[in-house]
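Journal club side-thread
Mid-discussion, someone asked how the predicted structure for our own chain would compare to the paper's figures. Pasting it here so we can look after the session.
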Amino acid sequence: MSNFQQVAEAFVKFYYETFDSNRQNLAPLYREGSMLTFESQQFSGSASITEKLVALPFQKVAHRISTIDAQPSNPQTGTILVLVTGQLLVDEEQNPQMFSQTFHLIPENDSYYVFNDIFRLNYA
């Protein structure tokens, strides 16, 4: 099994760089069995998830990652749970919003895909 923390860190870097530059390019990270819960709304399947992410009501976004925690979720299959916390700036906002996001990564060939994705803004 790969080093799960290294896999998580590489995934997070790729995911948020892609999200911040072109959300449409996130589609290959999801499969038809994948699910996104975004602020309590659920979306199933790659097309539905990508449609939601692309339709978010902002043009520019920048994620600032604070923490990345990872654990193997099933040592026999190599799945990984990843919890990310950080800040995001949208459009011309000066005050960042705090967020947390959890990913359940499933190995496939020499890579991973997102089976579960849970996103939540954290309000003080």
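Post-session note: The radius of gyration is 14 Å.
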